[in-house]
Amino acid sequence: MKGNFDFQYLKDIHKYLFQDVYRWAGDIRNCNIAKQDLFCLKENIESFGNDIFSKLKKEKYFVDYDNETTLNKLVELFADINALHPFREGNGRSQRVFIEALSKINGIYLDLTNVSKEDMIVASHDSIYGNYKKLKEMFKENSHIISEEERRKYLNIYCASPLLK
Known about the structure:
Elements: H1 7-18, E1 34-35, E2 37-38, H2 45-58, H3 67-84, H4 91-105, E3 108-110, H5 117-128, H6 133-141, E4 143-145, H7 148-158
Antiparallel strand pairs: 1-2, 3-4
Helix pairs in contact: 1-4, 2-3, 3-4, 3-6, 4-7, 5-6
């Protein structure tokens, strides 16, 4: 899917993935939810989500950073989106698709499909408290640097418009 790596793009990914499953696919949840921890309160989702994605845009989608810094930024963004948990169901799959696409336009091929559900839950739980160690290890173990040619290919696949406007 093409998008602008904004909050709407995350909603569009969710809608695409779950349109045949949930009539509310792509819609922000209207109830509070928790898994060990309470996620963002429903009344704050839009404003916090807009803050997260405005910060991403201000940082030029991480394209000016070296690979190590980019990986750290991807981890932090993943943790922020996880804490936001904007949908009733399907948050993990939607945020993985978003982060994997964002990583590719930054020259990092990230594939989290082989990470166990249990490991992802533990790493995500830790990240809510600012402990990114397990999440960072997970990202490092499941990524590699791609060529500039591949990166440009992914820019054409995923970006709806030039990102650096």
